[in-house]
Specification:
The chain is built from 6 helices and 15 strands. By secondary structure, the chain is α/β, with parallel strands linked by helices.
Length: 257
């Protein structure tokens, strides 16, 4: 069931030059929210931004009835959202999409850049099941991997940066921890990274879920602008994703070879 609700911004935090986070308080009780689901955010006071913006749900606190958004400033919509202040109201359509399955006893979570956002809620879901994931986070520099400390209570966190400023130097997909044994992989981030992770998982026979980041205007499967060509036909990423089993995305995997 989808909801349209005015949330109050309880906390706003600037996270370096490129990211900020918003802790949003629900006026009542939050509905169940799966890791990997997202919200459509209304952008007010910006005539150039007519459509809502899709943002991954970063964290959920059921006891306090808050959810957290981790937002990268990449365009006019997110730049306008970055001007919001604590105490202001933000209207959301939520929870949208299909989330991660939270399966396996030895999972690997792989995030790159802003794609680390849904992995915190996912790591918490694994911990509730008594499972400790390996959490591999990557970026061009350490400054582009925000909220690193937030992941530490929920898994074994390792890093890769292209400039070597944090963790192993190089692409996240070249990290030495890929040599370990896993029974489930979840990934979100730049498309080339997710395709490399997906191909690795298929080659090794490891179940793998990827969170696609197609342009999503409506969030409910009505506008069809986010359609992805899957092995089961065309699917709306906003409604039947954004999380997909990579074994059903062979056309997507092969597209960038």
């Amino acid at each position: 069931m989808k909801h349209i609700t005015d949330f109050v911004i309880e906390k706003r935090e600037q996270l370096g030059e490129h990211y900020f986070s918003l802790v949003l308080r629900h006026p009542g009780k939050l509905p169940p929210i799966a890791a990997g689901q997202f919200v459509e955010v209304e952008v007010k006071n910006c005539r150039e931004v007519l459509l809502r913006r899709p943002i991954s749900i970063h964290d959920v606190d059921e006891e306090r009835n808050t959810l957290t958004l981790l937002i990268q400033v990449v365009g006019k919509g997110t730049r306008q959202l970055s001007t919001l202040k604590e105490g202001e109201v933000l209207n959301l359509v939520y929870p949208l999409g299909h989330g991660f399955a939270v399966e396996g006893s030895r999972p690997l979570l792989v995030g790159g850049g802003a794609g680390i956002a849904p992995l915190l809620h996912l790591a918490k879901c694994y911990k509730r099941k008594g499972v400790v994931p390996v959490i591999l986070l990557g970026g061009r520099t350490k400054e582009l991997i925000p909220v690193r400390e937030a992941f530490e209570p929920y898994g074994e966190v390792v890093y890769a940066t292209e400039d070597g400023s944090l963790g192993e130097k190089g692409l996240v997909t070249h990290h030495s921890r890929f040599a370990d044994v896993y029974d489930h992989i979840c990934t979100c981030g730049p498309t080339p990274m997710m395709k490399a992770v997906g191909r690795y998982a298929v080659e090794k026979g490891i179940p793998c879920e990827v969170s696609l980041e197609n342009m999503m205007a409506c969030g409910i499967g009505a506008c069809l602008c986010c359609v992805c060509d899957t092995d089961e036909g065309h699917k709306c990423v906003c409604k039947e994703g954004p999380v997909f089993d990579v074994r059903k995305l062979t056309k997507w995997l092969d597209a960038a070879r």
